[in-house]
Amino acid sequence: MTLEEFTNEVLPLKNKLHRFAVRFLGDDMEAQDVVQEVLIKVWHRREELDRVDNMEAWCMTVTRNLSLDKLKSTKRKNTVQMPDGLDVSEDHKRTPFHSTAAGDMMNNIDKLMISLPEKQRQVMQLRDIEGFSYKEISEILTLDLNQVKVNLFRARKFIREKLFEMNAYGLQ
Amino acid sequence: MDYNRIDILLNKYWDCETTLEEEQELRAFFSSRQDDARWAKEAALFRYFEESRNNSPLGEFFDHRILEEIGKSEKPAGKVRSLWMNIGKVAAVILVLVSAVYFSVEDFRSEPKISQELGTYEDPKKAFEETKKALLMLSGSMNSGKEQVQKVSIFNEAQETIKDGTDQGDDKEKKESKDNK
Predict the structure, then answer these.
(1) What is the pLDDT of residues A82-141, one digit of tens each?
(2) Given CB atoms, is B48 within the 8 Å cutoff of chain A?
(3) pLDDT digits over A132-164, tens only?
(4) Which residue range(s) make up the domain with B20?
(5) Which residues in B lie closer than 8 A to residue A170 (C-beta atoms)?
(6) With an 8 Å Cβ cutoff, are A39 and B15 in contact?
(7) Which residue, A16, A98, A115, B89, has most beta carbons within 10 Å?
(8) 3-state secondary structure of A52
(9) Where are the beta strands (DSSP E) in B45-129?
(10) Is A86-172 a CATH 1.10.287.70 domain?
């Protein structure tokens, strides 16, 4: 892999990796650190990575592993932070929707997404936002195909129910 | 766009039976229709997906940081230094060997010169005389020492004469006893 290939093919994945890392860590700066680590790792191992056929999925897997490592090392800090993430006022910082007209609705969907169990949230993120195939998701999250489908089904069902409980202004 | 098709796709979506392409179709449909009351909630959800997907907080500054980090780790400074150090080692060994050979050869060549050197004297005869004088002085002082040592040897002689004397006395006694028999 040349520097040019890296800049054109790997570096543009940064936001995708960042969004995925944020789902784990719930913190923008920590997620940025993880993405930086992933990209530098890719560069250092570029020779062996020429044989990897799905670079995107590989990067996502590394992002997941590094995010989990980070969660382990800052476990105490995160048990304090996670409830904060569910607070509406906190949501404004990490979502792009507060400036849009349908901001409230968007924020509520974001809250629903965050309130999903971890696996369902990750599967939904990878499928509905990032557009990965079931097979890729199973590789990234090291789940088997059935588990991926079950988690996605439960996530969509939960979102659908909650969504239709809301009134037109996005209030529950 | 056929509305029935959207209904069918949405049902498939909730049952997790849509393909990636069909999901993309739904996203595209709802992003272009924001104020359709019929699917307001679904539209919001798909717009949420679409906007999340386009959420890119990491800009060029981040790229620069990454490329800088990569550049830092790429500089093969360590390797160059070790190469130079190896060359330095080899040069040091060669220097030692060359200087050792040079000095030993030099030593070997200059050996005959040393044997002809007369120290502080220019004239060989004078040097010989002086050496003779020095050796005589040495032997003279050694002889004076010898006289002192000779005094010590008197004791030795005395001890031996006493020993001999007692031996002779014993012999005489044996002879006398034989005669009496």
Answers:
(1) 444 444 444 444 455 545 555 678 888 888 888 999 899 999 999 999 999 999 999 999
(2) yes
(3) 999 999 999 999 999 999 999 999 999 999 888
(4) 3-55
(5) 44
(6) no
(7) A16
(8) coil
(9) none
(10) no
